[in-house]
Amino acid sequence: xxxxxxxxxxxxxxxxxxxxxxxxxxxxxxxxxxxxxxxxxxxxxxxxxxxxxxxxxxxxxxxxxxxxxxxxxxxxxxxxxxxxxxxxxxxxxxxxxxxxxxxxxxxxxxxxxxxxxxxxxxxxxxxxxxxxxxxxxxxxxxxxxxxxxxxxxxxxxxxxxxxxxxxxxxxxxxxxxxxxxxxxxxxxxxxxxxxxxxxxxxxxxxxxxxxxxxxxxxxxxxxxxxxxxxxxxxxxxxxxxxxxxxxxxxxxxxxxxxxxxxxxxxxxxxxxxxxxxxxxxxxxxxxxxxxxxxxxxxxxxxxxxxxxxxxxxxxxxxxxxxxxxxxxxxxxxxxxxxxxxxxxxxxxxxxxxxxxxxxxxxxxxxxxxxxxxxxxx
Length: 377
Prior knowledge:
Phosphorylase Kinase, domain 1, alpha+beta, 15 helices, five-stranded antiparallel β-sheet, 10 strands, Transferase(Phosphotransferase), domain 1, disordered C terminus, three-stranded antiparallel β-sheet
């Protein structure tokens, strides 16, 4: 366990920038119009409560000083109760779920927001992961959300966030999760936090132990990355997202990569690869590199170029030498990130044993021993 950190923010879902409402709706918010009304109108369109044509018809009247609440009733046929609800919830952004008192947003991702909530019946503080209304319109996204929530409800391991089921209230789908106070590794990296070698290895060991449990349950993660690994305030390391998890051996769609581009193994980057623990080991290797170097091993503004680099380019990092990191760490990264899956660690047990021995100083790795050399670079 790592040394506890002090109080700080929590992000159960990897943070994602919110789309600009002006850009997404095409509504012109000129200086002469009321910014609050224009922004609210754009938000109504962005969240699917109005269509763009309706908003464009209301816009000239807003510029003339008409109140948006009255226009929504007279021109769009919304009831006063509906308008009041839209105002109260910021166009449905702030969920209202009976039995829960929301106490602030913890994080926001591409498809869901996570809220700290008091469960009134039990007095427990939970994290509610609420599917965004626009995401609900995608059947695959909705099904994936429900599947992940049900999966977390069945799993119990100290290295996993606990899940307590999925439910729906009216048109709101939400998953009930353990509320963990802490930070994702990505949040810490973005804040400029430096990870010493031993701390990074302890994180990798803890994540690998959680992954060993998942493998025993027949599950491959497929999206290991700093944004899905949390460091709790008490020092524990927790995996918090199983949105892309699949059964071991489950093949992906040909030509389609599953996961986050910067952390994909070469076989995942090519698309159609069967779910395999060795692909997860590669992704954890990229995470280890990111933690100790502070940047990704393969970076580009073009996702297609990043995928090409994952498949074709050799791993190179002058920072590994410049920072005087141990030969053991070099070995772990190179073996975890070998291009050929046959040259990586073949099991979580093997990886955990090597990392644990290095942390505890029980033995030196024999880099020249057959079958242990980091090949396929």
